[in-house]
Amino acid sequence: MEILLAAPTGRAAKRMTEATGCQARTIHRLLELAGGPDNLAGASGRAVFAKNEENPLEAAVIIIDEMSMVDLYPM
Predict the structure, then answer these.
(1) pLDDT digits (tens, 9 = 90+) for 5-38
(2) How many CA within 13 A on the CB side of residue 41?
(3) Are 50 and 35 in contact (CB under 8 A)?
(4) How far from each other are the two terminal CA atoms of the chain, in whole angstroms?
């Protein structure tokens, strides 16, 4: 079963990796935030994620730590 672990910050993802022994990533890295600092905004003026409704994550389970820190757009 494919299980993905993520957290809103790099520090939280690192701690999650240490606690579980499984690789955790930031939510932005998990969703593959596209572009560099100069071209993060899409036509809507928001960040562009490569993983989205048309290109979903392939996993049976996704565990996100500190979910209360996640804003609406990545959600």
Answers:
(1) 999 999 999 999 999 999 999 999 999 987 655 5
(2) 5
(3) no
(4) 23
The dihedral formed by the CA atoms of 53, 13, 25 and 39, expressed in degrees to the nearest 10: 70
Residues in the chain: 75
Q: Is the pTM of this model over 0.90?
A: no
- Identify residue 39 by its one-letter amino acid code: N
Tokens of 43: 């036509």
Among the listed residues 12, 10, 50, 5, the one whose alpha carbon sits nearest the alpha carbon of residue 31: 50
Tell how far CA 26 is from the center of its chain. Answer: 5
- CA-based nearest residue to 31, from 4, 52, 45, 11: 52
